[in-house]
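debug: dumping io for the single-chain case to check the tokenizer round-trip. Nothing else runs in this session.
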Amino acid sequence: MTTQTVKQLINGEFVESTTSEWIELTNPATQEVIAKVPQTTSDEINQAVAAAAEAFKTWRKTPINTRSRIFLKYQQLIRDNMDELAAMLTEEQGKTLADAKGDVFRGLEVVEHASGIGNLQQGAFIENVATGVDMYNIQQPLGVCAGITPFNFPAMIPLWMFPMAIATGNTFVLKPSEQNPMVTMRLVELALEAGIPKGVLNVVHGGKDTVDAICDHPDIKAISFVGSTAVGTHVYNRASQAGKRVQCMMGAKNHAVILPDANKEQCLNQLAGAAFGAAGQRCMALSVVILVGEAKNWVGDIVERAKKLVVAAGKDDKDLGPVISKAAKARVERLIQAGADEGAQVLLDGRGIKVEGFENGNFVGPTILDNVTTDMTCYKEEIFGPVLDIMYADSLDEAIAIINANPNGNGTAIFTQSGAAAHKFQQDIDVGQVGINLPIPVPLPMFSFTGSRASKLGDLGPYGKQAVQFYTQTKTVTARWFDDEASKGVNTTISLK
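debug: decoded output
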């Protein structure tokens, strides 16, 4: 049986690559090869960018209501095809069907937001800033923009990017993760069905060579990236030096502080879901819990909740599926062992787990490391697997100090019934996204993703109000219209009188 190949989208056509270099796409639960992904050639990347540049000439002048209606239709098409999209996502990424639907739905929220672009892309106007002079600003699109997306959210994160960029009047070149681009391509098909014109959205594939080509191409004006810290830093530095706007959402080490007055049952349930859901492959995964004071007595309860979680192939829709690849599994297991070697106690060990009927799957079960300290490798590195580090603090101040000393600033949470403690935490913590009795505080699109410090490069986040700023250039116009009265002489000052 011939393995299908993933096509590219160039100037409105889904085309086969002429490359001789292909990447195998495997089902992480079975290792079955389900498709081959091309390493897009340099000529093909140039064609995609040229198509986007040509389309920009007319798309930028397309009425804003026309753009808005495309995304109104697009959101309905996504809803109509939700089950198909989730099944595709599960097959190539591994997450459960329920989590896959959540992946698609959180992207859908951004599409809905983009459909209201007429209310988002408004400038400002002041009449008579001086005699007979009006001043106003307008937010104009930049041109060709690009997005580089990761494997862990192959629906949500592309939908963070191209809808907002295109709705604001730009054209776009998308590079999905080479590890699972099929659901992304289906979303792209639906976008064309919704009415996005040819050349406005283009898709190329591949690894580092494609990333570097996007960073270097002189006709690409802005790049949005989500992925690892190492790659994000490379993209930011290389693209910034090429004169582009860049936003990079990168790695994390997210902590939850548990105070002894927290609602115990609610807290334990949310901890288990946030630490082990999606097999820990979330940049917002809750990978560290700091137990304050008498909350140290909850360790046994945390372990018992984790033991009840069921590991299975994603299509079986249990609690967590496999990690993305054999290499990812090996890395997670190496970091678990490093924790044990450096003095952490392995209270629950998910290594070596086997799932009946899927013996070749990349499975790691829920794992809990106790008495973790800040100098341990399992703490300093982002594990990106279903592993929870447990730490201890005698006070809220001590817990805050631990979190603020960590270089990352993606997300954090506190569990407490004390309003004063929660207020102190949100004020003193140096992390971009804070949850109060909520473990994964990802903002809805009317706000924006606001990770900080080493978790982010660039000053504007994806989607929401900040994305409108990122994808547009503010132009300020100062206008005076003379009547028939003669000018009263030459003004050699900078005054607008």
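debug: round-trip ok. The longest strand covers residues 133-141.
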